[in-house]
Description:
This protein has 85 residues and is an alpha+beta fold.
Amino acid sequence: MKLDQLRTGDNAVVDGVQASHADDLIARRLRDLGFVAGEPVRIVARAPLGGDPLLVSIGFTRFALRRSEAARITVSPIKSAEAAA
């Protein structure tokens, strides 16, 4: 599943970031921000009328991401009981 497909408030774990070519600066930037495999992530809020940008929480940090950037991040949703543990 892609991060932009996650519902607001749902928890997930990052699987990875998809690069469109070998020297993809956006993919590198996302990894540098902490979107790496195993990190917990959550959609905190969406902008009205189209939901762009998304407010994303990873660790103790929040980022505003465009939907196109969030679509590059693959995640595995986790159940709320797993997220609380």
